[in-house]
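stage 2 :: seqdesign
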């Protein structure tokens, strides 16, 4: 899908540039300013203007995004006026002839139903109105018409009809990318909900059972554990932000391990080695805690001998443009073939959802090069390495500035 969209953009923009050049060459001369031939100058100007109009449209078709992009789209077409609509109303009008809003919406019905563009004469009693013709070009995404671009001019123009169609097609591509971004966001949110559902029943039951065991024998200890439990669940079920900082994630892990230690006592030992400079690095929310829980499950609960001990080592190091986090246990380990099937979601044993969930989210946010790297074998423990880019556009923790 991404290759198709890229190809469509490459195909549309040169035609758009040529159309704009032809229209502007017939309308008025331009000063080239030493930027090359007229075609090169028009192409550069068109691509630059299109690049400025694209970001708002990547958020979907709303009044705000239409307002931010309308002036740039009108500049691409060189028209007296331009409006963007959804299926119900004019979202923004840029230029002359704003009084034609109602007439245009009445004439849009067929175009919005069929998805075919059209041109028609506007009726107007104002002698000084420069808007006499309208060219309609619908926005179509997945065979659904979302709205339309309407370019208005003093006279009928075949060049404007073609250029408006090309611009509308380019806008449709941006809206399709917006749909993909929204689908990706919904997928990540669904995976976080699935992760919470996986962790919560098991963890809550065991934690409350441990706290209950201390209520009579050591009330102060029970109170401390209740506070640890409250802090961890508050973090795990928070509603704001897709990302958090490494410091906050490690803090939640500390609450989690305090409850686990209360349950297993000296059977569990944990070593942390954290470089202070990586603590502000942003990463997907609930990204490391499931890996630590996996280490507990396979490192301690998975051991055949109930009196066996487990050591978990967590390190976070500065690796130039990346933060390198390693979670390692000396437990029962796993068959590599079974691990591959878990990550591919072909099988889903206890604890498997957490690994595949984290792996998928890391790849979605950073790319396939940033999936989990897992070293394991039956009886040989498990070592999970997570690489986190320090400076990723769009990745920032809630309440903090974006790290561009």
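stage 2 :: out
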């Amino acid at each position: 899908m991404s290759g198709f969209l890229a190809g469509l953009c490459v195909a549309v923009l040169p035609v758009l540039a040529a159309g704009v050049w032809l229209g502007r060459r017939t309308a008025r001369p331009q000063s080239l300013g030493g930027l090359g031939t007229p075609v090169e100058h028009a192409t550069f100007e068109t691509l630059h203007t299109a690049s400025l109009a694209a970001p708002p449209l990547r958020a979907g078709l709303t009044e705000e995004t239409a307002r931010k992009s309308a002036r740039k789209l009108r500049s691409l077409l060189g028209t007296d006026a331009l409006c963007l609509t959804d299926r119900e109303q004019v979202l923004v009008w840029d230029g002359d002839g704003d009084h034609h809003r109602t007439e245009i919406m009445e004439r849009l019905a067929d175009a919005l139903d069929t998805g075919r563009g059209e041109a028609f004469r506007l009726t107007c009693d104002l002698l000084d109105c420069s808007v006499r013709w309208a060219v309609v070009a619908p926005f179509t995404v997945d065979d659904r018409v979302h709205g339309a671009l309407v370019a208005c001019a003093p006279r009928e123009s075949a060049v404007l009809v073609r250029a408006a169609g090309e611009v509308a097609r380019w806008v449709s591509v941006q809206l399709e990318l917006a749909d993909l971004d929204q689908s990706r966001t919904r997928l990540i949110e669904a995976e976080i909900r699935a992760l919470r559902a996986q962790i919560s029943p098991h963890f809550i039951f065991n934690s409350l059972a441990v706290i209950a065991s201390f209520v009579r024998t050591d009330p102060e200890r029970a109170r401390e554990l209740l506070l640890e439990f409250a802090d961890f669940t508050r973090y795990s079920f928070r509603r704001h932000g897709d990302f958090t900082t490494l410091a906050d994630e490690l803090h939640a892990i500390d609450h989690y391990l305090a409850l686990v230690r209360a349950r297993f006592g000296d059977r569990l030992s944990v070593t942390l080695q954290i470089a202070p400079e990586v603590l502000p690095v942003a990463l997907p929310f609930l990204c490391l805690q499931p890996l630590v829980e996996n280490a507990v499950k396979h490192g301690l609960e998975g051991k055949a001998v109930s009196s066996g001990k487990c050591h978990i080592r967590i390190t976070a190091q500065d690796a130039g443009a990346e933060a390198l986090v390693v979670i390692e246990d000396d437990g029962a380990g796993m068959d590599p073939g079974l691990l591959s099937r878990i990550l591919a979601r072909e099988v889903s044993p206890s604890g498997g959802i957490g690994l595949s969930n984290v792996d998928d989210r890391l790849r979605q946010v950073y790319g396939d090069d940033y999936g989990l790297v897992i070293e394991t074998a039956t009886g040989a423990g498990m070592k999970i390495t997570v690489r986190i880019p320090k400076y990723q556009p769009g990745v920032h923790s809630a309440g903090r500035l974006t790290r561009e």
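stage 3 :: structure notes
- The longest helix spans residues 158-215.
- Residues 376 and 382 are 5 Å apart (CA to CA).
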